[in-house]
From TrEMBL:
<keyword id="KW-0378">Hydrolase</keyword>
<dbReference type="GO" id="GO:0005576">
    <property type="term" value="C:extracellular region"/>
</dbReference>
<feature type="binding site">
    <location>
        <position position="80"/>
    </location>
    <ligand>
        <name>Fe cation 2</name>
    </ligand>
</feature>
<feature type="signal peptide">
    <location>
        <begin position="1"/>
        <end position="25"/>
    </location>
</feature>
<dbReference type="InterPro" id="IPR024927">
    <property type="entry name" value="Acid_PPase"/>
</dbReference>
<keyword id="KW-0325">Glycoprotein</keyword>
<feature type="binding site">
    <location>
        <position position="212"/>
    </location>
    <ligand>
        <name>Fe cation 2</name>
    </ligand>
</feature>
<keyword id="KW-0964">Secreted</keyword>
<keyword id="KW-0408">Iron</keyword>
<dbReference type="InterPro" id="IPR029052">
    <property type="entry name" value="Metallo-depent_PP-like"/>
</dbReference>
<dbReference type="InterPro" id="IPR004843">
    <property type="entry name" value="Calcineurin-like_PHP"/>
</dbReference>
<feature type="binding site">
    <location>
        <position position="249"/>
    </location>
    <ligand>
        <name>Fe cation 1</name>
    </ligand>
</feature>
<protein>
    <recommendedName>
        <fullName>Purple acid phosphatase</fullName>
        <ecNumber>3.1.3.2</ecNumber>
    </recommendedName>
</protein>
<keyword id="KW-0479">Metal-binding</keyword>
<keyword id="KW-0732">Signal</keyword>
<feature type="binding site">
    <location>
        <position position="80"/>
    </location>
    <ligand>
        <name>Fe cation 1</name>
    </ligand>
</feature>
<dbReference type="GO" id="GO:0003993">
    <property type="term" value="F:acid phosphatase activity"/>
</dbReference>
């Protein structure tokens, strides 16, 4: 007992455990080859599933039109996919009424990459991750955290709902489906660890992180302090270019004051017009719109172009810059 041999053995076992954990914990990865012209184009919509109501259908129609114009590669959903309380199960007809039968335009028959929002966790969250939904509509792909390698860009999808303390400490009348998430501290630590690894390993020209909750927002919910504290430092340290989210039912762009990161909210897929803006939090706010709409992203090796549209497909805000310029400004 206690010989160097025992100690070496114990150390060896621990190292194996750590090694295995790192490997098995990696985010699932998907390759999405681009069209070969070196550009990437996609739409972003969030907070949408209301059976077409609250202008969801109008937003969907304009997404189809703009999607055609841009010849998009895929669509990103920033969560709160189904209101009010996610899906009831794999065979909930809301999947058809709020997704499959709404986004019917030709240009939207592309892969949809989705994360879960807090409202999705109020139903059967696991159902949204099910391959059964992918059989019903092959566009659908929703997972908790994963990576999409789209050649010039890598997109890192992060499950942000479990980070928000309030859902655990003060759930009110809501019931959350925390299956697969408990114990939550271990879960969130693992997510951050995996994200950091994936970002460090990334050789992509553009790094884009997608979550449901905002890091920075002047809208109804405001900043998500847990993400400011835990997620933002990892993004700042790893040359992330864009953080894209929903949650606040608005469209907005805010710049970071410590890095080139742009905080982009696209959470206006259906119900909007909350009318409350936190004026005290307006630092670096570049654009805010309280109504419905969506966002497009166009990337080349050198440039990024972000456009926000309203329910009529009108351009509300356009922001273009080069990677070079973005980093010069900091
Ligand atoms: C639908 O969009 C129009 C135009 O922005 C707006 O005036 C109207 O209030 C919206 N309807 C709902 C239910 O939000």
């Amino acid at each position: 007992m206690g010989s160097w041999r025992d100690k070496t053995m114990v150390l060896f076992l621990w190292l194996s455990v750590i090694y295995v954990c790192k490997i098995s914990a990696e985010f699932q990865r998907f390759e999405h080859p681009t069209k070969g012209d070196g550009t990437l184009r996609f739409l972003v919509v969030g907070d949408w599933g209301r059976k077409g109501e609250f202008n969801q259908s109008r937003v969907a129609f304009q997404m189809g039109r703009i999607g055609e114009e841009l010849d998009i590669d895929f669509v990103v959903s920033t969560g709160d996919n189904f209101y009010d309380n996610g899906l009831k199960g794999e065979d909930d007809p809301n999947f058809l009424h709020s997704f499959a039968n709404i986004y019917t335009a030709n240009s939207l028959q592309k892969q949809w990459f989705s994360v879960l929002g807090n409202h999705d966790y109020r139903g059967d969250a696991v159902a949204q991750l099910s391959p059964f939904l992918r059989q019903m509509d092959s566009r659908w792909l929703c997972l908790r955290s994963f990576v999409v390698d789209a050649e010039i860009a890598e997109l890192f999808f992060v499950d942000t709902t479990p980070f928000v303390d309030e859902y655990f400490s003060d759930p009110g009348e809501h019931k959350y489906d925390w299956r697969g998430v408990s114990p939550v501290d271990t879960y969130t630590a693992q997510v951050l660890n995996d994200l950091e690894l994936a970002l460090e390993e990334s050789r992509a020209r553009w790094k884009i992180v997608v979550g449901h909750h905002a890091i920075r927002s002047v809208g109804h919910h405001g900043d998500t302090q847990e993400l400011v504290d835990q997620l933002l430092p990892i993004l700042q340290a790893n040359d992330v270019d864009l953080y894209v989210n929903g949650h606040d039912h608005c469209l907005e762009r805010i710049s970071d004051n410590k890095s080139p990161i742009q905080f982009l909210t696209s959470g206006a897929g259906s119900k909007a017009w909350r009318g409350d803006v936190d004026k005290s939090n307006k630092e670096n706010l570049k654009f805010f719109y309280d109504g419905q709409g969506f966002m497009s992203v166009r990337l080349t090796q050198s440039d990024v172009e972000i456009i926000f549209y309203d329910v009529f497909g009108r351009v509300l805000h356009e922001w273009t810059t080069s990677k070079h310029q973005l980093h010069l400004e900091m």
